Amino acid sequence: MPKTAIVPPGTGKPLAPYVPGILADGILYVSGTLPLDAEAQVVHHGDAAAQTRHVLETIKGVVETAGGTLDDITFNHIFLKDWADYAAINGVYAEYFPGEKPARYCIQCGLVKPEALVEIASVAHLGTATGA
C-alpha cells in the first residue's frame, strides 16, 4: 500500500523516529502531538489551554498540508497529565470542533516531556486527497 509522509513546512526535528503524519488510502494518521516549538521545547508552561491550542494548531497544519481540514478528523486520542486540566483542554477543543465532534478518548498519563500537559493524536479521512 502506498503511503506518503506529511511534514508541514517549518516542522522541527521530532523527538523520536516518526513523521508528523502519514497518508495512506485517503486516511491521515497524525502522530501524537505535544506543545513543542521548532527546537522541541515545551511552550506555554503551566497553561493547559494555551498548550492545547498550540497542539491543535500543529495538527491543523498537518491536516491542511495533506489537503484536508479539521472537519475531516474522525477520531482524536487525547492524553492529559492531570485531570485538573480537563475543563481547560475541553474548552479549547470545543473551539476547534464546533459542529459535529470527532469520536475520541481521553486518558491521564505521564507524557514524554514532563512540562507538557496535553498530547493529541488524530485520524482524518480525506477521501482522495493526495497530500503535498
Automatic annotation (TrEMBL):
Catalytic reactions of this protein: (Z)-3-aminoacrylate + H2O + H(+) = 3-oxopropanoate + NH4(+)
Pfam family membership, one: Ribonuc_L-PSP
Gene3D superfamilies given in the database record: RutC-like (3.30.1330.40)
UniProt keyword annotations, A-Z: Hydrolase
InterPro entries reported for this sequence: RutC (IPR019898), RutC-like_sf (IPR035959), YjgF/YER057c/UK114 (IPR006175)
Keyword Hydrolase carried by entry: yes
Recorded GO MF terms: deaminase activity
GO cellular component, as recorded: cytosol
Enzyme Commission identifier(s): 3.5.-.-
Class of the enzyme per the UniProt entry, highest EC level: hydrolase
Domain of life: Bacteria
GO process annotations (BP): nitrogen utilization; uracil catabolic process
Family indicated by similarity: Belongs to the RutC family.
Function comment: Involved in pyrimidine catabolism. Catalyzes the deamination of 3-aminoacrylate to malonic semialdehyde, a reaction that can also occur spontaneously. RutC may facilitate the reaction and modulate the metabolic fitness, rather than catalyzing essential functions.
Matches recorded under HAMAP family: RutC
Protein known as: 3-aminoacrylate deaminase RutC
Protein species of origin: Methylobacterium gossipiicola
